[in-house]
């Protein structure tokens, strides 16, 4: 970090350099704000509008990922550990897809409004599922190899009355002989509703069904 103080440089006139040694703290009020990387050595956390990658064995070994301009509201690490994805709130409620090795953003996904509330990689890390808050009300599925939209849907008010609080992938849909097909499946929950979705990736076709819980009423968080 370079500092350019008022009154000019020190000594020979060279600009003094202030090196950030260590940062303490994270956005603890954000759900799932801390993740252990699959390498079991690093952990990744949200700190305001930045992402901090830290070494468990050396707290002074930190990397700061900057690219958001408002509070980061969701963060996820890919199953293979090669990518991170983060979403934010505000006027630029973008999603950033990061390359883990280089610690650089490779795609900026700019379709949500107001706030990105949930984010998750598919089991094979080929797809990224994102949903917005109640003001946005949208669902997007992205191709992680090129940043293109695979499919999208306006959830509120056509499908749901409130935004999902949780999303989770479940591998692939199975046929009548319990063999995996090429269709992905995932679940969304919130507002006492649990829904199972299937995606045909080549066409972007989405199908969903409400899970019946009988006489039980559950609140999913």
Automatic annotation (TrEMBL):
- Record protein name field: Uncharacterized protein
One short Pfam family name for this protein?
WD40
- The answer to whether UniProt assigns keyword Ribonucleoprotein to this entry is no
Keywords, comma-separated and alphabetical: Repeat, WD repeat
Under the heading SMART domains, the entry gives: WD40
InterPro entries on file: WD40/YVTN_repeat-like_dom_sf, WD40_repeat_dom_sf, WD40_rpt, WD_repeat_EMAP
Tell me which domain of life the UniProt entry assigns to the organism this sequence originates from: Eukaryota
